[in-house]
Write a structure and sequence with these properties.
alpha+beta, Rossmann fold, D-amino Acid Aminotransferase, Chain A, domain 1, 2 domains, 10 helices, 32% helix, globular
Length: 319
């Protein structure tokens, strides 16, 4: 029987919802692995690499599922997990260290997107670059899962007095938001049907239309209850859907993504999609957008995990 390790960041009683969600992902993977006749175990990632690698090697695991999104409750070093696995030639799922590093740091990500002529909202790290007449959202540079995002961060440029350390200001696009999931290897991949995050017109009439932390994680909040995911579109959106998928595929290739990923875009009044984030290690819990997109094209949960294993990152030695 083949063996798999599910590698994830530590979870404690004080962990926030976005960090606790890794347990839902682990259960999802374990259930599919059982169907695929794999044994599995969970392992906590820490920076004591010698002990961790010894454990992995001793287990004789044929694959490691990399679910590490934070280290010391910060996303800045999330690339350390795949970097370590690469260094010690351990096959693992998802994107490699370089891709995760480039996409986790949003300034680096947006710079690369702009260089490759992929539209992304204007951003600034310095007040001198802010247009006082436009609206901006102040976002953490290296966090995913809408960590640190709420309505209070959206302000007029003239009211921004300081951009905190570790944050940047991104032009706020008051429009539609789309998530496009992708599955596959570096050279052969499938762009899944785009999903639109729909904001209730009544509740969001006077509020910014953003997928903040509450909308994503707090099921008791009005934001969560008034935000839904939809794969259904009008005929008038046909050209837009084609463009969204084209951009997502281009992002996959530019950053050398593999396994599975998600590209988030905003579309304003000009109907031009702009990439706001690339998640090279997105959530794969049962209720996640990625799993929903896979299910939309008929992939079962077990088939999703099998495909991810088939597209495992292996080093040049051919492990």
């Amino acid at each position: 029987m083949k063996h798999a390790i599910i590698l994830h960041n530590p979870v404690t009683n004080s962990s926030k919802e976005d960090e606790l969600d890794v347990l839902n992902q682990a259960i999802f993977i374990e259930t599919a692995l059982e169907q695929l006749r794999y044994s599995s175990e969970r392992t906590i990632f820490d920076l004591n690499t010698n002990n961790l690698i010894t454990l992995i090697k001793k287990s004789e695991a044929s694959v490691v599922f990399n679910l590490v999104e934070t280290i010391n409750e910060s996303g800045r070093l999330s690339f350390a997990a795949p970097a370590m696995l690469e260094l010690f030639e351990v096959p693992f799922t998802g994107s490699d260290a370089a891709a995760i590093f480039m996409t986790t740091d949003k300034i680096i990500c947006k710079t690369i997107l702009s260089f490759n002529k992929v539209d992304t909202p204007f951003w600034a790290k310095h007040l001198a670059d802010i247009d006082p007449e436009k609206y901006y959202i102040t976002k953490p540079i290296s966090e995913d899962g809408s960590v640190g995002i709420d309505d209070a961060l959206i302000v007029r440029g003239s009211d921004i007095k300081k951009i905190p350390k570790g944050y940047f200001a991104e032009e706020y696009i008051h429009g539609r938001e789309f998530n496009i999931s992708i599955i596959g290897g570096k050279n052969e991949f499938r762009v899944l049907p785009p999903a639109e995050m729909c904001f209730s017109s009544e509740y969001y009439e006077t509020k910014p239309r953003i997928l903040g932390y509450k909308a994503k994680w707090d099921e008791t909040s009005m934001e969560y209850q008034n935000t839904t995911r939809s794969f259904q579109f009008k005929d008038a959106d046909a050209e837009l859907i084609v463009e969204l998928k084209k951009i997502a595929g281009k992002c996959w290739s530019i950053f050398g993504l593999s396994g599975y990923a998600r590209v988030d875009l905003r579309v304003g009044a000009d109907n031009r999609p702009k990439v706001i984030e690339i998640n090279a290690n997105p959530c794969i819990a049962p209720d996640s957008g990625f799993v929903a997109a896979c299910n939309e094209v008929g992939l079962t949960n077990t088939e999703i995990i099998k495909r991810i294993i088939d597209d495992t990152n292996r080093n040049e030695a051919g492990i």
